[in-house]
Amino acid sequence: MEGAVIEFHLDGRSGVSPYLQIVQQVRHALRLGLLDEGDRLPTVKEVVARLAINPNTVLKAYRELEHEGLVAARPGVGTFVTRTLADASLAAHAPLRQELRRWLSRARRAGLDDESIEALFMTTFRTAAREDIA
Amino acid sequence: MSAVLRARHLGKRYKQRWALSDCTFEVPAGHVTGLVGPNGAGKSTLLNLAAGMLTPTSGTIEVCGGVPGDGPAQLAKVGFVAQDTPVYASLTVADHLRLGARLNPGWDDALARRRIERLGLDPDQRAGRLSGGQRAQLALTLGIAKRPELLILDEPVAALDPLARREFLQDLMEAVAEHGLSVILSSHLVADLERVCDHLVVLVASQVRLAGALDELLATHHRLSGPRRDVATLPADQEVISASHTDRQTTLVVRTEAPILDPAWTVSGLTLEDLVLAYLARPAGAGSAGRPALTVLR
């Protein structure tokens, strides 16, 4: 059997639950084109033997990815990528990054330090997310 | 939910002292359950009761559907690695495997040999000359190769260096993934528990203070901070686990199923360590008998 394409790692200080970290790492790899359709994710046994984490954590992450339609489990064979996220949005990254850079230099000129910039971004981000839901 | 362990009003007394009293809780099958609590809280007593090494003074305990230690069939279902992962110092690694094969009806010899080989242990080495990490791995090998339904481990990694600890937990999790066995392990190292456990039991001063699925416990506990406030004015569904006040500020850890709506609070999540510490520091008798429950009149 072909080996898995990616390996997971855990950040114990991130405050993000291990299962969500795995979900995010798969999504991230899909977005960056690191994972492609047909690629096999590491088996549950491979992940737990490497990270020393609870198997149910991995199962939960894989179920969530399956629910999102990103992967599909083939019993006895493994879990495979069914859809990639590196589509049109990848092309939009560059112009967005440029705008963000311009915004950052404006913020600095206005006298904001790193912490203030981060706080401003996060509160705006959260408020906008909340308004989108409402 | 099928339970691998059921305790009802379980108690154990040593002479005058109750090491465990009135414990009622369940541990679900197919999970890895972490048992935490300060020294002397009764963790080892509880694990020894579950393994059948001790008998209860009061109440009942049921493990894998039977009475702990009750006959060969029950003994075969439960693996027990006692504190400090004991092995027979004068016996060789190979002797341990032979002993395991003779004493356990469900012994998986191929699995035991594979593990010993992978660990790089010399079969002719006396167990007394193994390093702490190797000794723990030998004890784990015996526990896994027995092919129990439930594996109980009392502080298995406490004496190990970080690398040996990680390797031990990797192998334990691999066995859980491969054989679907249930595990109960006690540990002081909450960071390890956070990785390997999906269920938690907190034992303080001989009583179970908290038991439940890790995800749910983390989702239902919140840290609130805001302007100073009397905790008696909180909504009835918010159980206060810990509270500290300055002249102007109040910081709380509360447990609630409902979202926190009061805009006066800054709400943040808790790490497992914060959660455990909040319960360890909580005075005895707090909780259900603490604040009188308020009812909302509509």
TrEMBL record, chain A:
What are the UniProt keywords, alphabetically? DNA-binding, Transcription, Transcription regulation
Determine if Nucleotide-binding is one of this entry's keywords.
no
SMART domains in the record? HTH_GNTR
UniProt cross-references to SUPFAM superfamilies, sorted A to Z: Winged helix' DNA-binding domain
Query: Superkingdom of the source?
Result: Bacteria
Q: Which residues form a coiled coil?
A: none
Q: Does the keyword Cytoplasm apply?
A: no
Task: Give the residue spans that cross the bilayer.
Answer: none
Which residues are in the HTH gntR-type domain? 16-84
Q: Which Pfam families match?
A: GntR
Kindly give the CDD domains that the UniProt entry links to this protein. Answer: WHTH_GntR
Against PANTHER family, the record matches this protein to: GNTR-FAMILY TRANSCRIPTIONAL REGULATOR (PTHR38445:SF7), HTH-TYPE TRANSCRIPTIONAL REPRESSOR YTRA (PTHR38445)
What protein name is recorded for this chain?
GntR family transcriptional regulator
Q: What is the lineage of its organism?
A: Bacteria, Bacillati, Actinomycetota, Actinomycetes, Streptosporangiales
From TrEMBL, chain B:
Swiss-Prot/TrEMBL keywords? ATP-binding, Nucleotide-binding, Transport
Note the SUPFAM superfamilies from the entry: P-loop containing nucleoside triphosphate hydrolases (SSF52540)
SMART domains membership:
AAA (SM00382)
Molecular functions (GO terms): ATP binding
KW ATP-binding (keyword) present: yes
Entry superkingdom: Bacteria
Pfam families, per this entry?
A: ABC_tran
Recorded hits in Gene3D superfamilies, A to Z, give: P-loop containing nucleotide triphosphate hydrolases (3.40.50.300)
Sequence ranges assigned to domain ABC transporter in this UniProt record: 5-230
- List residues traversing the bilayer: none
Protein name (record): ABC transporter ATP-binding protein
Q: Which organism is it from?
A: Nonomuraea indica
